[in-house]
């Protein structure tokens, strides 16, 4: 459980995080989505007390992060996989974390196993690690204390496709066991696959939030028919906005079951009926951040 | 769509409420910081070079010093010189690596009380300093016995217990200067350069200024920390000299350390 309330962080005149309010629920994966420089990392750093908030507050498990007696045992944090001492071996890095949390050293080997770092790799210094290996080590550090909450900033960066799949399954399992996961990304597809809830941020402000289902619904339904004009007319009569999408398809701003009912009532044969493309979220994302993102002006 | 949401929630069993873990004791933080000083490549070689230079210094005195110089004082001095540089560097790196290597991101999220972490580092650095001086003196004693035996002269023990205390104090102060610069600058190369300036450039400037300006020459014992520390190596301090050490130390060590700590508490860890 993470609660962020009216959080603001300014740097001089720049409002890096501007009145951000959202919560991440237990048992669910909350995706924190935004273009580069949108304020995701700053928000996460404020949550764990690395950056002081200008105003507003953030609590984890009902308490301010600094009031957690042994944070590593309750909250697993990975903000930057590169932020590890280059001259320390992977195993020593984990041992330091385990020691700080007061865990038995046997946890180190368990976690190395879990994140698939081999014994030889664990003996190498972090300096020689690839970004993917650093991510695995960072995930291991976050999980070693068996926390209830995970806060992960761009954890999929540098992982190969198999690694991304592994990470996805890991986080799904964690949430299914009742854990809270907050994960940030600027990669829409990655978030779309894993998240239950979404918080979309652009230029420090929240531009959309809700369950993935709700946000996808607002992207509409794609319906294909051989009698496209009749269908368009029927939808219009029911007050559903629909726009042409290619020669024989419509994009309706309604859920699929409503569109199906309309088609049935109108006696229009359908050849396809589904939620608008997987790219729906991407379109939403680009649309929502168009006036706030760097590429906005050019696009 | 609400149906999906409810279903998702049902699928996730409520996690059993857990009791809050016990707070992290300070003793554990000290252990962690002690381990962290030695389990990096830099830390390992720093300790190795302390032992190495102590052995080289001892061997050099035996090989090159005249028989009359085969005294404990000389062995101690030869071993002590590299220590005055290596101990502050160790203290500097223990602090600055959290920023320069960015490991502070993990350290300060696992322990969200920076003051406690810095305090643990300071206690550990002082302890390592004291132990190092002890080891150095032991190596020196061994050198003294072996050296005088080889040279066939009487073994001379010309360091008093009081001198040893002062020697330890001088080295700990020196180490704290490094620690202070680490806290203040929070960047490894920057703090090491800062230490060189502080310890070698400033005293020279102070001396030159004192040669030309009488007012500075008069105030120097009170304001020149390096000067005040120098008295420690002579073994015995008068109460005035203690007061001078305290005054100069306040200005050059305590105040900047306090400023550095405030900055550490307020700064962002990135």
Widest beta sheet: strand line-up of chain A: 6-7-8-3-9-10
> What fraction of residues of chain B sit in β-strands?
under 5%
Looking at the structure, the CATH topology of the largest domain in chain A is Rossmann fold
Q: What does the main sheet of chain A amount to?
A: 6 strands, mixed
Individual helix count of chain A: 11
Rg estimate of chain B, integer Å: 24 Å
What letter string, H or E per element, gives the SSE order of chain B? HHHHHHHHHHH
What characteristic shape of chain A results from the CA principal axes?
elongated
What proportion of the residues of chain B is helical, as a percent range? Answer: over 70%
How many H/I helical runs of chain B?
11
Helicity of chain A, as a percent range: 25-40%
Shape descriptor of chain B reads globular
Alpha carbon gap, first and last residue of chain A: 37 Å
Number of domains of chain B: 1
- Average pLDDT level of chain B: 89
Low-confidence stretches of chain A: none
């Amino acid at each position: 459980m993470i609660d962020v309330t009216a959080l603001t962080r300014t740097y001089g005149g720049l409002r890096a995080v501007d009145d951000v309010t959202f919560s991440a629920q237990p048992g669910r994966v909350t995706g924190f989505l935004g273009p580069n420089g949108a304020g995701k990392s700053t928000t996460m750093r404020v949550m764990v007390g690395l950056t002081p908030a200008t105003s507003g507050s953030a609590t984890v498990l009902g308490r301010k992060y600094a009031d957690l007696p042994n944070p590593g045992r309750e909250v697993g944090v990975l903000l930057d996989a590169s932020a590890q001492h280059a001259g320390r071996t992977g195993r020593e890095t984990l041992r330091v974390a385990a020691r700080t949390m007061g865990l038995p050293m046997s946890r180190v080997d368990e976690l190395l196993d879990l994140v698939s770092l081999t014994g030889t790799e664990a003996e190498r210094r972090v300096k020689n690690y690839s970004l993917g290996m650093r991510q695995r080590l960072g995930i291991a550090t976050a999980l070693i204390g068996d926390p209830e909450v995970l806060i992960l900033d761009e954890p999929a960066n540098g992982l190969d496709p198999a690694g991304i799949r592994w990470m996805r399954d890991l986080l799904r399992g964690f949430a299914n066991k009742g854990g809270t996961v907050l994960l940030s990304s600027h990669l829409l597809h990655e978030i779309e696959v894993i998240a239950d809830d979404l918080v979309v941020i652009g230029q420090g402000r929240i531009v959309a939030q809700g369950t993935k289902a709700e946000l996808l619904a607002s992207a509409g339904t794609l319906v294909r028919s051989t009698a496209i004009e009749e269908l368009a007319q029927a939808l219009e009569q029911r007050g559903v906005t629909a726009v042409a999408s290619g020669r024989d398809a419509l994009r309706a701003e309604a859920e699929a079951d409503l569109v199906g009912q309309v088609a049935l009532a109108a006696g229009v044969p359908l050849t396809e009926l589904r939620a608008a493309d997987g790219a729906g979220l991407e379109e939403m994302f680009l649309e929502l951040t168009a006036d706030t993102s760097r590429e906005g002006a050019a696009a | 769509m609400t149906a999906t949401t409810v279903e998702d929630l049902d699928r996730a069993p409520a996690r059993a409420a857990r009791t809050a873990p016990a707070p992290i004791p300070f003793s554990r933080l000290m252990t962690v910081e002690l381990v962290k000083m030695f389990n990096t490549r830099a830390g390992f070689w720093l300790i190795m070079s302390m032992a190495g230079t102590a052995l080289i210094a001892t061997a050099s005195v035996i090989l090159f010093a005249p028989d009359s110089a085969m005294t404990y004082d000389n062995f101690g001095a030869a071993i002590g010189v590299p220590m005055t540089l290596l101990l502050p560097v160790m203290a500097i790196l223990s602090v600055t690596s959290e920023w320069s290597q960015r490991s502070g991101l993990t350290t300060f999220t696992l322990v969200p009380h920076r003051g406690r972490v810095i305090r643990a580092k300071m206690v550990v650095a002082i302890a390592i300093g004291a132990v190092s001086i002890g080891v150095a003196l032991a190596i020196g004693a061994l050198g003294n016995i072996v050296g005088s035996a080889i040279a066939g002269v009487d073994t001379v023990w010309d360091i008093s217990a009081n001198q040893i205390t002062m020697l330890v104090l001088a080295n700990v102060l020196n180490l704290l200067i490094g620690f202070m610069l680490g806290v203040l600058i929070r960047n490894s190369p920057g703090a090491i350069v800062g230490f060189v300036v502080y310890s070698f450039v400033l005293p020279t400037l102070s001396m030159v200024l004192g040669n030309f300006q009488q007012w500075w020459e008069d105030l120097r014992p009170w304001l020149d920390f390096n000067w005040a520390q120098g008295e420690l190596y002579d073994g015995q301090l008068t109460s005035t000299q203690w007061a001078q050490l305290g005054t100069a130390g306040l200005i050059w060590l305590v105040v900047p350390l306090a400023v550095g700590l405030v900055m550490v508490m307020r700064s962002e860890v990135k």
